[in-house]
Design a protein that fits this description.
Elements: E1 5-9, E2 12-15, E3 22-25, H1 35-44, E4 52-56, H2 62-69, E5 74-79, H3 82-94, E6 101-105, E7 121-124, H4 131-137, H5 152-160, E8 171-177, H6 182-192, E9 193-206, H7 218-223, E10 230-232, E11 235-248
Parallel strand pairs: 4-5, 4-7, 5-6, 7-8
Antiparallel strand pairs: 1-2, 2-3, 8-11, 9-11, 10-11
Helix pairs in contact: 1-2, 5-6
Amino acid sequence: MPSQLVPLAPGLLRWTGAGGPFDYELSPRVFAPSLTSEAIVEALGVASTLGVVLDIGCGGGFLAIVAARLGAKRVYATDISEEAARLARSNADRAGVGGIISVLCSDGLEALPERAVRADVVINDISGVPDVLARRLRWYPDGGAGGGDGITLPLRIIDGLPAVLNPDTGLLIQPLGSVQFTPAIKRRLHALFKKRTVAAYRQFFLPKEALDGDCSEINPLRLQGRMRLWEARGLIWWDAEVLVCEGLRERYRPPSPG
C-alpha cells in the first residue's frame, strides 16, 4: 500500500488520507510520521465516535490533527519535547484545527490528571523500539526509544490509563511491532481490557545495513525472543499490528514485568 504522506518540499509533507488533505511541517529534531502512523489512522476509523482524544507522544501532532479533522471534539496532545510541542501547535494551526487541539509539553500522562481529563480514545504511539535499533536506524532524533527491548514507555502509559480513560466507553489504540517485546505488552493489555481487536496490520523491511557490523547488542534480543525479525527476498522484515482495546476491567493490578 503506497504511503499517503506525500513529500511536497524539504521539510514539508501533504497528508492525503482520512482527514486530509493537509500540509505537515517536519523538523530534524522531532519524530516524523511513519507507515505505522498511517496504520493508526486506519484504526481510528473503528471508533464510533472520537469525542475526547489523547495523543501520547504526539511528535509534530500528525495523529492529533487527523483525529481533530475526523470529528474529535477535543484533542489533548502530549510530548516531552518542547520543540515537538511547538511544532505540533504550528501544524495544528496550519491544518485549521488549532482551536480543537491542546498541546501539552508533558512526560506521557503526567499533565492530564490535574486537568481532570477523561478520554474516549487514547492513542499510545509513544516510543516502542529498542534503543539499540533506534540508534542504528536514526528513527528518533535523540537516539532513545522505548528502553532495552522497546516496552518501557508503552507499559508506563498503559498502567496509567485508568486515571484518564473513560471507564465505560473508552478505547485504547495501541501499535505493536515485532521489533519490540510484544508479549509483555499484550499481557498488560489482557489484564486491563476485556476486548482487544486487531484493526490494522503491516509488514515493513529494514535496510540491510541495520544489522551489518557489530550486532552484539541486537543478537541477544533476537535469541531471547524479545525481537522478531525474518529474512525474505533479500530483505530483513518486521511486522506491526494496531490493536483497539476496550472494556476497562474494574480491578487492575499491573502484572510483573518481563
